[in-house]
Every structure is written in C-alpha cells, then in structure tokens.
Amino acid sequence: MAMVDAGGVRLHVQRLGPPAGRVPHATVVLVHGLLTDSLASYYFTVAPAFAAAGLDVVMYDLRGHGRSERPPEGYTLDHNIDDLTALLDRLDVTGPLHLVGNSYGGTIAFGFTARHPGRVATLALIESEPATASWAAKLGRILHRVTTQLAGDEAAALAWITAHRGHNTARLAKGAARLARETTLGRDIPASRVLTEAQISAVRCPVLGVYGGDSDLVDLVPLKRGLLGDFRAVVLPGHEHSVLVEAPGTVGGHILDLLGAGAGVR
C-alpha cells in the first residue's frame, strides 16, 4: 500500500505482482467506479487472479474515494484522467498497458485511451461507456437523486436501504451521499467535457465490453460496434450493473483472454 502524489492530490495505490520468481509480462491498471466503489472491489474479485496469471496489477482509489485525498473541488472527468496520467508517470509505468474500468472507471479509462492512444494495448470496459452528452445527462440525474433523496431525510432513506439492500450497502450509500454533498463532484461530472463520435472512433486498440444481461447498457452494444473498429461484447444473462462482484471469475476470465494471459479463471 502507498500514497502517491499525483500532482495536487494524494492517491491511495495498491500493487499486486506475480508469485515470487516470476517476472510480470505486462501491466494492467484497474480503475473503479463512482461514489460507492473503491479499489477494494478489484482486490476481492479479479486482481489476485490477474497477478497469479503473471501480470503487474495496479489499483488505486479515485480522488475523493477510499483512502485517497478528498479535495473540495476538481471532479470533472478530465481531472480523473489527469490523475491517472500523473499516477502512471509517478509509478514509472511506461510501455503499452492494459486498462480495465468498471462503470465510471471505464469512462475514465476510455478517456485516457482517447487522449494517449499509443500507451494502451487493450481496453476492458465493465458495465461502462465512453463520455457522451447522453452519458453526462444520465450521470447528472443519478447524482441529483443521490444528493436530494438522502439530504431530505437521511435517516429514513438509510433505514430503507438497510432493510432492502443490507447494512453494507447502507454504509456505502451514506459515504457516497457525503462525497456528493461536500464536494463539487455532483456538479463537475455532468459538466465534464465529452467525446465526439470521431474521437471515440479513433480508439483503435482491442476493446472488450462486459455487460449484465439485465443492464440498460446492453442497448449501447450495437452503437459501440459501429464506432469501434475492434470491439467485442460479452453479455452475462441474469446480471445487472454489479456484474463485477456477482460474477468475478467469468468477468476476469474474459479479460485475461483479451490480454492473452492464459486460459482465464472461469
């Protein structure tokens, strides 16, 4: 575990490597999702299997999340892409790398790839999409709901979440509401600069999309196929947005296949 200065914000980083005596053959960087997520979701799902397959695995908490610093402002998508860029430079991760992003983390990873195409060998998007105008509008609605519903009667809202989703989800929801309420995140993300279709189409590396069969993001698969020259989708029936934690072996196996890192962990 380490705290790394990423140029104005200190980010919590954890790194896993292959078993002793094995030299990693590639670096994979795992980028987590928004508000209720942190690097822990990878640590307890796919990261150990990736390290066992011979990869150098880099995980970090986004600004404001987990154990990373929480500045009061500066939460646009570009801020997060800048953080990832600075982090890789501080860690001296140079040659082509593999990026894996879950939900909002995939939007960050795609934005980084569009900005630095020569640095990314493959891109895996778990329940994620590139930043577009419709994406920004959707995030704006979600963040507005998070702040207003919990701000009105937080105790009642958390009691409902506890009864219907469990104590852990309620704890995460409370932290998420505080993050959205005490920082400019709720305003910054919907106001983020988005990508044009030409910028999306310019991403040429192999892209894997993994989706829950019951997720609304499945509807975007045809659009991605039309815009991306090397795109493959995997749809897992019976799962929704939390497919990473519900089916980590299957998700991780498909990503390892993309990376050419062995037979996978399915």
Blueprint (SSEs and pairs):
Layout: E1 2-5, E2 10-16, E3 26-31, H1 40-43, H2 47-52, E4 55-60, H3 77-90, E5 97-102, H4 104-115, E6 120-126, H5 133-152, H6 154-165, H7 167-182, H8 185-188, H9 197-201, E7 207-212, H10 221-227, E8 231-236, H11 243-246, H12 248-259
Parallel strand pairs: 3-4, 3-5, 5-6, 6-7, 7-8
Antiparallel strand pairs: 1-2, 2-4
Overall mean pLDDT stands at: 88
CATH topology of the largest domain: Rossmann fold
Domain module count: 2
CATH architecture name of the largest domain: 3-Layer(aba) Sandwich
Shape: globular
From N to C, what is the helix and strand string?
Answer: EEEHHEHEHEHHHHHEHEHH
Low-confidence stretches: 160-166, 261-266
Number of strands: 8
CATH class of the largest domain: Alpha Beta
Main sheet properties = 8 strands, mixed
The percentage helix is: 40-55%
Radius of gyration of CA atoms, rounded to a whole number: 18 Å
The neighbouring-strand order within the major sheet is 1-2-4-3-5-6-7-8
Number of helices, where a helix is a run of at least 4 consecutive DSSP H or I residues = 12
CATH superfamily of the largest domain: Alpha/Beta hydrolase fold, catalytic domain
